[in-house]
């Protein structure tokens, strides 16, 4: 089931005017920032379908940028996010993409700085709820219902075992897990939804495990 | 977890508890939280709703100037004249529209289930409250009952205008409010489901056609429609009137209708009222572009 809490329906508390186009957009922006691990220096934001047609009226543009700056859905500063981005050295470009998308509220965010680049696809499914459907070319299905860890690794035997061993040692239960790779022996992505938030010390331990290249966590 | 309204009603009847209690217990179970935690989280939402109505009744204006001030107009009318549809009805309508005026003005609101439809649940709650004199706990329960029905809609159909049109937003919100009014007024879980079904049936087919793509015209006044219909349906159900089509089947119909709606009528600001001469003119004025 897509929605598992009453607070998905009665909530979120948010700055208007649209739960899907404003609050949901802020959440996708925030998820992109969390996965990147810091504020990016630039962002190219492709908007599709209803997002592309109505983003100005709904404040989707500043909500996405507000999220990239780390704002929550109820942050009154969201309406000033575009100016704040300039002050904070985040360069933003919006592209109204005419390509069709599977979901009417779809955004592709390519963000980066001097050292790294990240591409993420998110959809806003209603009432402020979002899903991340693609990360750096990997398809995934991240609901945000639970805390999650995303682990980029090299596709080698033992990589998954070394991760699950660490989680087991710390008594962290895995609720959902998927593994995706670009090709045999190449870059791969593990997405692990857990029941409780993962402490930074455990993340550091995971980071040091064999074949792991990078790690990000999502707090639900 | 309950998946359908039928399962929700069955749980309530079997354990002889109100719908709000089924929702509270499920939330405690799924999130591994105590009753106090779940209640206090919902109370925070209630406080946001209360504050939004308070702000609305002082008068707000959106940046575009398209909406704002109507909630105040209605309150003034209620004081000076005798509204034909009654004071409670107009109070609900005024508070529902007011909440959406605050939303359009980029104020802080609580989405129920969405921002565009955020007026129906609190608008009816803070109007019905004047007659039923509920305790604070009963007011919080009102939100759990609304949420329980919205939960079923969200998981079986949709709650966003972009996915299913305004029937999915104001239709769901008004129907959720109907069910909650029934519980607060002492009706049975089954009566709540009939009230929900009656409201949603009368919202079927409603398109999402916001002028200039803004959550203003017609959204604010559609919350007047959603909240007033919620009270009418609740009264019908409390009088013993039943929906011939069961609640879950009405939700199914809403889903299929939404699937058949063209994208021009699903929150793209391209069809319906957005595509009237005045709608196009307003868009041009606001964004300074020809359409």
Features:
heterodimer, A: 60s Ribosomal Protein L30, Chain: A, Alpha-Beta Plaits, 2 domains, 4-stranded antiparallel β-sheet, 29% helix, B: 291 residues, 2-methylcitrate dehydratase PrpD, 13 helices, 66% helix, 1% strand, globular
Word description of this protein:
The complex is a heterodimer of chains A (220) and B (291). Chain A is of the alpha+beta class and 220 residues long. Chain A folds into two domains: 6-142, 60s Ribosomal Protein L30, Chain: A, CATH 3.30.1330; 148-218, ACT domain (Alpha-Beta Plaits, 2-Layer Sandwich). Chain A is built from six helices and eleven strands. Chain A has helices spanning 19-36, 49-58, 60-68, 81-87, 159-169, 200-207; strands at residues 13-15, 42-48, 91-96, 105-112, 117-126, 129-135, 138-142, 148-154, 174-181, 187-194, 212-218. In chain A, strands 3-2-4-5-6-7 form a six-stranded mixed sheet. In chain A, strands 9-10-8-11 form a four-stranded antiparallel sheet. In chain A, β9 and β10 (187-194) form a beta hairpin. The radius of gyration of chain A is 17 Å and the shape is globular. The mean pLDDT of chain A is 91. The mean pLDDT of chain B is 96. Chain B has one domain: 2-methylcitrate dehydratase PrpD (Orthogonal Bundle). Chain B has helices at 5-15, 19-31, 35-58, 70-80, 87-104, 120-132, 136-156, 161-164, 166-184, 189-201, 219-238, 247-260, 277-287, and one strand spanning 108-110. β1 of chain A pairs antiparallel with β1 (108-110) of chain B.
């Amino acid at each position: 089931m897509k929605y598992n809490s009453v607070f998905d329906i009665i909530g979120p508390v948010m700055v208007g005017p649209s739960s899907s186009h404003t609050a949901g957009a802020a959440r996708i922006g925030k998820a992109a920032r969390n996965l990147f691990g810091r504020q990016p220096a630039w962002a190219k934001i492709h908007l599709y379908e209803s997002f592309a047609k109505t983003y100005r009226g709904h404040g989707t543009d500043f909500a996405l940028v507000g999220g990239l700056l780390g704002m929550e859905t109820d942050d009154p500063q969201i309406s000033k996010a575009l100016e704040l981005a300039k002050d904070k050295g985040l360069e933003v470009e919006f592209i109204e993409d005419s390509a069709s998308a599977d979901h009417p509220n779809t955004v592709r965010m390519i963000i980066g700085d001097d050292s790294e680049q990240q591409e993420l696809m998110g959809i806003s499914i209603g009432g402020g709820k979002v899903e991340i459907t693609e990360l750096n070319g990997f398809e995934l299905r991240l609901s945000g219902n639970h805390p999650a860890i995303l682990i980029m690794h090299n596709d080698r035997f033992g990589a998954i075992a070394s991760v699950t061993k660490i989680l087991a040692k710390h008594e962290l239960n895995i609720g959902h897990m998927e593994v995706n790779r670009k090709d045999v022996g190449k870059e791969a992505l593990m997405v692990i939804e857990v029941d409780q938030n993962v402490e930074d010390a455990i993340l550091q331990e995971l980071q040091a495990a064999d074949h792991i290249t990078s790690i990000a966590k999502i707090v639900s | 977890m309950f998946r359908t309204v039928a399962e929700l009603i069955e749980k309530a009847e079997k354990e002889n508890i109100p719908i709000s209690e089924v929702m509270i217990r499920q939330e405690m179970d799924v999130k591994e939280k105590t009753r106090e935690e779940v209640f206090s989280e919902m109370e925070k939402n209630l406080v946001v709703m209360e504050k939004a109505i308070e702000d609305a009744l002082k008068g707000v204006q959106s940046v575009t100037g398209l909406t704002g001030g109507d909630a105040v107009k209605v309150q003034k009318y209620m004081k000076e004249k005798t509204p034909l549809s009654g004071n409670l009805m107009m109070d609900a309508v005024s508070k529902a529209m007011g909440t959406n005026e605050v939303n359009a003005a980029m104020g802080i609101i609580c989405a129920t289930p969405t921002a565009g439809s955020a007026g129906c649940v609190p608008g009816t709650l803070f109007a019905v409250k004047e007659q039923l004199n509920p305790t604070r706990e009963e007011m919080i329960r009102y939100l759990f009952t609304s949420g329980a029905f919205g939960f079923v809609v969200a998981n079986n159909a949709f709650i966003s205008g972009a996915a299913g049109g305004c029937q999915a937003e104001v239709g769901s919100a008004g129907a959720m409010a109907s069910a909650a009014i029934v519980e607060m007024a002492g009706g049975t879980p089954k009566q709540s489901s009939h009230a929900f079904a009656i409201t949603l049936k009368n919202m079927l087919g409603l398109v999402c056609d916001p002028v200039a793509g803004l959550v203003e015209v017609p959204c604010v006044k559609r919350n007047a429609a959603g909240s007033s219909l919620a009270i009418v349906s609740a009264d019908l159900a409390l009088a013993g009137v039943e929906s011939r089509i069961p609640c879950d089947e009405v939700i199914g119909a809403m889903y299929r209708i939404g699937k058949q709606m063209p994208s021009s009528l699903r929150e793209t600001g391209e069809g319906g009222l957005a595509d009237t001469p005045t709608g196009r003119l307003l868009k041009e004025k606001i964004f300074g572009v020809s359409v």
